[in-house]
């Protein structure tokens, strides 16, 4: 079984947990120990540590996650009822591909059992292994990456900087959409920016999100897999002074984005990568994880789990067609319908709803077609 490759947490860590307040999160989690492995069937969320950082190519091949766990489990939970388990660590295999194999199969097993895996890396190329887990689920995948770079193939060739190329090019091709949140223009060539546009992917500059983080919420609402590169946070807030970043998200903004990920009914896997496991960085990583789980406990089981009939329907006539919007009375969130077009090459089997904003609806009234709707239509026919 794939979990045979997981390393249990050590006795020093369990001594630390026993010293925590009885109300602390660490006293309510079921851990993988030398003698016991958590019951997956009773879990809702599973923490997986992956210590392999070879994808960065910086010589730091094995990151220590002890500080992250100690910070995280010292926090107090919200009004959380779901069972959280910590499965321990996947240690580096003989090759990166060995690590990918174990992570891919572990994530697939958890998702099949309706458990949300939270992966603490490790280098961000581990996102590729998480993406490949969906091969076994036979579905198209929407990936959201919070990152200052697009991670296409670069001259250095290191996997952490090029994993997106593998998602796009390698078979089976299950990637329906990729969205980048927080890219910084000077870290990305014009050729890469043009390619994102050509593939009808979504990309939001750092400044756009910092000015109005709410525009990212529909993007996360439509995601299956969310990957956070911690170097997208400025060093003053992340505590990472090994790789100094003067610009990036602040601590509050990255936690807001993490909460959007958690609150999304559609997100089935989440990961935080590209950090050094230092004490300073661990404080923010712990809070990012906390906000994801907090968001998870506020999921509203709306579309695609609820019926369209449960929402208010708004029809906006345009010159050549109609745009159909839906609004939830429960959360006041909005969706726009992508129609099923019969008789042509079509990735959709039926009409579907794309998360959007109230501003998209107002724009449609002024005869402005929402950009994400237009891109989704184009991707559907490619």
TrEMBL record:
<dbReference type="InterPro" id="IPR023696">
    <property type="entry name" value="Ureohydrolase_dom_sf"/>
</dbReference>
<dbReference type="Pfam" id="PF00491">
    <property type="entry name" value="Arginase"/>
</dbReference>
<dbReference type="GO" id="GO:0046872">
    <property type="term" value="F:metal ion binding"/>
</dbReference>
<dbReference type="InterPro" id="IPR006035">
    <property type="entry name" value="Ureohydrolase"/>
</dbReference>
<comment type="similarity">
    <text>Belongs to the arginase family.</text>
</comment>
<protein>
    <submittedName>
        <fullName>Arginase</fullName>
    </submittedName>
</protein>
<dbReference type="GO" id="GO:0016813">
    <property type="term" value="F:hydrolase activity, acting on carbon-nitrogen (but not peptide) bonds, in linear amidines"/>
</dbReference>
